[in-house]
Amino acid sequence: MAAGSTRLTRRAVVVLIASAAIVARGVDPRAAEAPKRIVSLVPALTEMLYAIGAGPQVVGVSSFDDFPPQVKSLPRVGALVDPDMERILSLRPDLVIVYGSQTTVETQLARAGIRAYNYRHAGLAGIFSTIRDLGRTVGRERESERLAQQIQQRLDSVQARVATQPKIRTLLVFERDLGSLRGLYASGGVGFMHDILLIAGGTNVFADVPREAVQPSVETILARAPSAILEVRPTGLPRERIPDERRVWDSLPSIPAVRDGRIRIVTDDYLVTPGPRVAQAAEAIARLIHPEAFK
Amino acid sequence: MNMVESTVSVGAPAIRPIRARLTLTVLGFGALTIVTCLLAPLVGSTSISLARVFDRSIPFSDNVDAQIFFIARMPRVLAGAVTGAALAAAGVVFQAMLRNPLATPFTLGVSAGASLGAMSAIVLGAAVSFGPIAVVPLASLLGAAIAAAIVYRLATLRDRAMSTTVLLLAGVTLNSFFSALILFLQYIANFAQVYRAMRWVMGDLDVGSFQPVLAALPLIVIAFVLFALLPSSLNLLSVGTDAATARGVDVARAQRLSFVSASLATAAAVSLAGPIGFVGIVVPHLVRLLVGVDHRVVLPASALFGAAFLVACDVGARTLLAPLEIPVGVITALLGGPFFLWLLVRRG
Amino acid sequence: MLRGSDLSYGYARGRDRSGFSLRDVTIEVPRGSLTGLLGPNGCGKTTLLRLLAGILTPESGTVTLKERPLKDLSRREIARQLALVPQETHPAFDYTALEMVLMGRHPHLGLFELEGPHDLRVAHNALATTGTDHLADRAYMTLSGGEKQRVVIASALAQSSDVLLLDEPTASLDLGYQLDVASLLSELNRERGVTMLLATHDLNLAASVCDRLILMREGRVIAQGQTTDVLTASRVRDIYGVVADVRHHERAGHLTVTPVSRAQ
Question: How far apart (Å, rounded) are the C-alpha atoms in residues A39 and A76?
């Protein structure tokens, strides 16, 4: 009878260990919560999801998403002003990432019993906290922590590289009319673009304005006299137009940036996306205003 | 056998005759406008030294004060004067032509067309732009021209003389229709474009160089040349078309001339500075309170006062909350709204 | 003085809802006469006046003024010889009475010419003639109905024309003002020799001041000639479908028309 009882014991131990494992998995709260179908209305956060390995769970994105390339084949559900609730619901998500101001969407999701992640746009520090927070929400804490540190390291190296360079007074332009200086929007002293500019070794001529965007008059621009003008125009500017657009500044010759020809116009989306590629953006801007440091 | 040309002696007229009134008015308002335009560039959000501005020893490209004065402020003052004069005069002409003191330069849809053109350029512009040309003012002008053409065609469909009813209906319809198209464009636009569009609609005289003003000037000059032919006809038209014809006015021609000149002035002004409201109605009414209703005095006086008024409003716009700029259309609305209310209450 | 020959005009383009037209109208307004144009509403009186004033162009026929066809004259030339008092005058702005009257000087002024002392004298004379000189600086809109009408007549007089066309000059006036205007017109005709054509639906007004009458019905002239010849009971019945008593009134000194009943 000893052989039989050994077989029984062995079997019992296997069953016991197996049940313990099953129970353990069932008890792990995060493993149970990890969303499997995520819809994201915020392009920056979509990028974060892919960067922390949650890409396969993304089932729907906003109309403005275009990175990484995998999102191009995903269904679109609208954006900030026109979120398509029907589409969102039809994708049967268990997590929807929305803008902080989209309160109606949140209410509707709550009624449908779907979890919402509320994104509020903030400065550079906000990008890090969002990466970590998002990582917690989708059960990828380790990956998000790793990503955050990678980005921080890269930012630090950019900052170190330009540390010895003199700070360049920069006018950071978001938008203006084609062919003229009217309707000009520049970065104020708040926001991640302003923060990146500082890391890239520049100072913002409008650092004293406590807003993200400023609409300066021609007089104000002349008075602030930036040494460099950096125009980040992600939408709608064809490459061939860039030399012509640079020449528009010739009407204000007393600006040092115009005198010295330090006007750069760039048209890449990632430069204005508060997401994982922010370190790339910082490096790109650093190269533009401190080319000597990257030779 | 003219029965009234007999020598019956009558008392001297109590109100000054027209010649004296016209001279006095033009001199008075002209002086006001010149003084305003001379003082305006001296004021701004940045303090500059006049001595430095005119210091020839400093090369222009290094002289920030001079640049602020000549590049930022002077064109702005000129733009304000030209736009104010155009809108005020257009207001007078539309009010007379439509026989309605509540008409504005924007009543007949010209401004809606200009706005649609500007919106289209802001939202779709990059796709169709060509060369280093400022697309928004050009598209704005095109939109205004299309709107005016549509209204004109509708109003002259039945016969040579324009029906004011048809004009008003066509204008109102066009305003609604174009507004709907504008809303749609804003819906498909991104944030930056929507902000830009909103900013354009509030009016902006910060032209940044003389070039935009010089571009708009030929149209405004033509409009004013045509305006010069109108005042006595406007008086007669505003009493009644049959009476006007019986007194020798070619009513159809006068109406066409009024429509074309006022639309031209409005289109040029709106393309240059956006649809700045209230200038076209507050200035004519204010002027009428001061000089009477004879269009031969009201039209030149309104043009002059309109220039001074808008330049003054722009000074307020750029100094009241300096360094923050209030859009000039907001200033004219803040002044114009209450004034208009007061006018209506007074009338009733 | 003023003659219309075979005038025809149609509202085929649909402006007039009744689809009305004038047919083969031939009329004459002799120099120095005070002619009345009578007929029921919609018979074409206003259209005829507008054709005679040169505001409308007839589809066929001609209007001649002092033997010259209207189409050979410029608008200004016509305006210097012919003035019109329209049915209603509603200025869109607050003109003074004097400003209203001065507008009558328009055909005598060049393109950029302003009124001079002579024009002012003419204007004041016109106001005096209509007894409204004391209202010269008053706003037209603030005047009474009778005063307004007299100012409008004054502005027509200021045109210094030989012919005056009036469309329902007493239609909206109180009885007293009706008499005032009637006697004013009579006086202008008698003492100043102004030739007048007066469109009215008021039979008694026409009978009291007009020496000649033109009767119209449905776009055609039914009769024209001396008032005493033309204004008969059978004509009234013909034109208005009304049985009326037409007789000379001793005290009033002219024919009067008293409606009795509808014709069967």
Answer: 9
- Sheet with A95-99: list strands edge to edge: A58-61, A38-40, A95-99, A115-119
Cα distance between residue A216 and residue A194, in whole Å: 16
Are A128 and A170 in the same domain? no
Q: Which domain holds residue A185?
A: 163-294
* Minimum distance, in Å, between the CA of residue B72 and any CA atom of chain A: 5
Domain count of the fold of chain A: 2
pLDDT tens track for B142-180: 999 999 999 999 888 877 677 888 899 999 999 999 999
In chain C, whose CA is at the least distance from the CA of B158? C13
Residue C16 C-alpha, separation from nearest chain B C-alpha, in angstroms: 13
Calculate the average pLDDT of chain B: 89
Question: Does residue B14 lie within any of the structural domains?
Answer: no
In terms of domains, do A231 and A266 share one? yes
Residues of chain C below pLDDT 70: 11-20
All residues of chain B having their beta carbon less than 8 Å from the beta carbon of residue A236 are 125-127
pLDDT of A265 strictly over 70: yes
| A72 plus A195 within the same structural domain | no
- What per-residue string of b and e applies to A103-124 under the rule 16 or more CB within 10 Å gives b? eebbebbeeeebebbebebbbb
Q: C96 — contact with chain B (CB < 8 Å)?
A: yes
Asked if A219 and B131 come within 8 Å (Cβ–Cβ), the reply is no
For residue C27, the cross-strand partners are C4
| CA-based nearest distance B126→chain A, Å | 5
In chain A, beta strands by DSSP E: 38-40, 58-61, 95-99, 115-119, 168-175, 185-187, 202-204, 213-214, 228-232, 263-266
Q: The domain that contains A73 carries what CATH number?
A: 3.40.50.1980
**Same domain for A169 and A267?**
yes
Distance CA C83, CA C163 (A): 6
Residue A34 has pLDDT above 90, yes or no: no
Q: CB-side exposure of B302: number of CA atoms within 13 Å? A: 34
Q: Which of A127, A155, A183 is the last residue of a domain?
A: A155
- Distance of alpha carbon C210 from the chain centroid: 12
pLDDT tens, residue by residue, B48-73: 888 888 888 888 888 889 989 999 99
pLDDT tens, B202-233? 999 999 889 899 999 999 999 999 999 999 99
Q: In this structure, is residue B316 part of a structural domain?
A: yes
CB spacing of B8 vs C125 below 8 angstroms: yes
- Domain interval for residue B95: 19-41+62-347
> Cβ(A258)–Cβ(A250) under 8 Å?
yes
Output the pTM of the full model. 0.87
pLDDT in tens, B325-344: 899 999 999 999 898 888 77
Residue with token string 């009624």: A111
| Encoded tokens for A26 | 């069932």
Decide if C147 contacts C181 (C-beta within 8 A): no
Residues A146 and A170 in one domain: no
Residues A100-119 have pLDDT tens digits of: 889 899 999 999 999 999 99
Contacts of A96 (CB under 8 A, 6+ apart): A38, A39, A40, A41, A88, A105, A109, A114, A115, A116, A117
What is the CATH number that goes with domain C2-66+162-262? Answer: 3.40.50.300
Q: What is the pLDDT of residue B276?
A: 96
Kindly tell me if the per-residue pLDDT of B188 is higher than 50. yes
Please check whether residue B322 is in contact with residue B45, taking contact to mean a CB–CB distance below 8 angstroms.
Answer: yes
| Mean pLDDT calculated for residue range B309-324 | 91
| Residue B112 φ/ψ, nearest 5 degrees | -65, -40
In a domain, A42, yes or no: yes
Determine, yes or no, domain membership for B57. no
Domain locations in chain C?
A: 2-66+162-262, 92-161
